[in-house]
Automatic annotation (TrEMBL):
Species of origin: Bacillus songklensis
UniProt membrane topology term: Multi-pass membrane protein
Protein name per its UniProtKB record: Probable disulfide formation protein
Disulfide bond entries: C31-C34, C92-C98
HAMAP family linked to this entry: BdbC
Transmembrane segments: 6-23, 35-53, 59-81, 102-128
Family, similarity comment: Belongs to the DsbB family. BdbC subfamily.
Keywords: Cell membrane, Chaperone, Disulfide bond, Electron transport, Membrane, Oxidoreductase, Redox-active center, Transmembrane, Transmembrane helix, Transport
Database matches in Pfam families: DsbB
UniProt cross-references to SUPFAM superfamilies, sorted A to Z: DsbB-like
InterPro entries listed in its UniProt record: DiS_bond_form_DsbB/BdbC (IPR003752), Disulphide_bond_form_BdbC (IPR012187), DsbB-like_sf (IPR023380)
Presence of the UniProt keyword Transmembrane in the record: yes
Amino acid sequence: MSKPLLFSWIAAITAVIGSLFFSEVMQFVPCTLCWYQRILMYPLAILLGLAFYRNDQVIYQYVLPFSILGMILSGYHYALQKIPFLQTFEMCKSGIPCSGEYINWLGFVTIPLLAFIAFTIITVNMLLLRKN
């Protein structure tokens, strides 16, 4: 059993369930950047689950591009929410604004930060898997 695979899979499953909870239960409509982050995260839940089941030690080759791109995208999304200057460059012009905050726990925890944390956990674990 590979702990990096297990921890990555748990992070991906938690992120998928969390995003579905926010949209389907809480009725939060995802913005454009949220959709892109979902596109990057949802396949990871399946890939990492299969990799954990098969103890696939080279899955990092396929997961790292998704998780690193997800970190960049969710980091930008979080900065867009928290740095007012960046809102002048906002790309979400129709529908839900990407700078909007459905949640703001403790004054800094937003949905993009939660996604960033999940992508970071996956990336770190995949780098550990690669090292071994």
